[in-house]
Each structure stands twice: as structure tokens, then as C-alpha cells.
Amino acid sequence: MQLKKYTDYGLRVLIYLAAAEPDERATINDLSSVFSVSKNHLNKVVHHLGKLGLIKTWRGKGGGFSLAVDARHTRLDTVIRQLEGDEDWIDCLNPTCKIYSVCDLKGIIHAGKEQFYSYLAKYTIASLVERPEEIKVRWHIDTQELNDES
To answer: Pfam families in the record, alphabetically (predicted)?
Structure first.
């Protein structure tokens, strides 16, 4: 199983915002520079995170976005389900599988998926940023290296 790039980018945005100072706003340019991800992809992710109520957004000059939730209480399983969509991992009915009625694969995969999410439920966004000052320094170094190469 592999998470979608969309989910990966969404988690990166949340980590970045959780590591930021409470009154600090990030921009698409900031994130694009730090993560080397296209602005177009990040715009879609940020828009979705805003619709989910996970981030606050401001438009125009001085705009940007910040975390809208308490990172200590925002569980990874919930965020990943929201970003991934919670569809079945196996679709035995499209097209209909000839052995569907006698096969246990769907039930086994479903149980594994629930164990996966149960494990993630032990962690929050805050779990990912226990050393925010080190995260910010690393991002600053990477961003500076990118700017120096230009």
C-alpha cells in the first residue's frame, strides 16, 4: 500500500504549519520552496485542507494560511482517511470477480486496513513535530541551498 502524493503533501503542509510560530502564516511559495513541490499541486492540497477545517486561509496581500486545529488532538488516522478518501482497497465487484462469493481476500484486506488506521490513531500531528526548532532549521538550510543553486 502506498499513500497518494496528495496525502503526502497534505501531511507535509500540516507538519510545516504545526512547526511554525502560532501567529506565523505560510504561503504557497514558502511550501513550494521547502518541499520542491509544484505550486499547482500545493494550491489543491491547501484548498482541501481549508475545506476540511484543518487550516485557516487568508487571501490577498499579507495572506497565507496557518493551522486551524490543535495539533495535539488531530489524529493521523483521521487526517489520512480524509485526504486519501476511505474507499475499499479492493473492489471485487467492478468488474465482478468470479470467485467473490468464496474468496476471503476482501475481508482480510479490510481487517488489515483497519489495523493500519488503528495504529495511526495513536499519533497526532504534534507527534510529528516534537522538535519544531530543528525542523525549521532543516527547512531553512534546504531552502537556502536551493536558492544558492539558482
So the answer is: Rrf2
Residue carrying C-alpha cell 481549508: 50
Alpha-carbon span 114 to 54, nearest angstrom: 23
pLDDT digits (tens, 9 = 90+) for 107-142: 999 999 999 999 999 999 999 998 767 776 666 655
Cα distance between residue 57 and residue 84, in whole Å: 22
Extract long-range pairs of 3-6: CB within 8 Å, 24+ residues apart: 3/80, 3/84, 4/83, 4/84, 5/41, 6/41, 6/44, 6/45, 6/83
Q: Can you give the residue range of the structural domain that contains 115?
A: 5-149
Q: Write down the pTM of the prediction.
A: 0.83
Q: How many domains does the chain have?
A: 1
pLDDT grade for 149, boundaries at 50, 70 and 90: low
Given the DSSP bridges, would you call strands 64-67 and 55-58 parallel, antiparallel or unpaired? antiparallel
Q: Diameter of the chain by CA atoms?
A: 61
Task: Give the orientation angle of helix 5-19 with respect to helix 76-84, to 10 degrees.
Answer: 140
